[in-house]
Amino acid sequence: MSNDKAVSDHYTQGDLLETLRAALAGLGKTADNVTIEDLAPVDEFHIGGRQATEHFIGQLNFAGRDHILDVGCGLGGASRFVASKYNSRVSGIDLTPEYIETGKVLSAWVGLDKQVALHQGSALSLPFQDAFFDGGFMMHVGMNIEDKVRLFAEVHRVLRPGAFFGVYDVMRISDGELSYPVPWATGSSTSSLAAPAYYRQALHKAGFKVTAENNRYDFTMTFFNELQAKMEAGGSPPPLGLHTLMGENTPQKIQNMIRNISAGYIAPVEIIARKHGDRPAAG
Fold first, then answer.
1. Domain architecture of the chain: domains with CATH
2. Which residues, in sequence order, are CB contacts of 32 under 8 Å at separation 6+?
3. Fewer Cβ close by (within 10 Å): the C or N end of the chain?
């Protein structure tokens, strides 16, 4: 099995859209009245959810009329958030066909299918022409991609001069044996963690200048401690949440994440970079 197929299989459920329909019905929502805020608990498949998205995206200087690239877009939740908040056009790409097919339906449900275009494919071979985008980002993607030098070279190719590119990934902070499964991998064979220094090196080699780096350890521990407290309090989980994507072993994946982060082995880190050159004047 190729690594791409193994990664895609890890995320594939087979009946995701129907699962989401049923979960929304439990909230009293349908395709006719659902909003991007309703979808946020499942749309933001990364540590910190919507709060993390707002903090991260707010550093990238996106503006109306920009065309933005979302690498590893999943269901397209962050793409829809950017399109809605900044009135931008967003093109997302993801390896998992079910995520793309489902994400297109969700975009139509919330009336953003004209601004958000989702594509199935590999981030290592982007189906876009050179200097096509005004900015880009990826959220919790690099943990499944070993060749980060090639990844960032492809992103650099499709961005215009002066464009910002943001990375929000779980990164290796120190050596140590990780507990699996975790949200992005069942075992080490599909996990490609790297240290922030390696990310910076790969970005620099691709032609980016790193302008900021933020270790989000403290934010993450607060987020997961609150999440674990809710799980330990018992009762049924809400109709819609990350468990909708992660399945029955969600508690184990969350507990392993907390264990790995608490041990200081990993942490989510933001890296903000910029492609050399000046952006063309608007208009």
1. 3-275 (3.40.50.150)
2. none
3. C
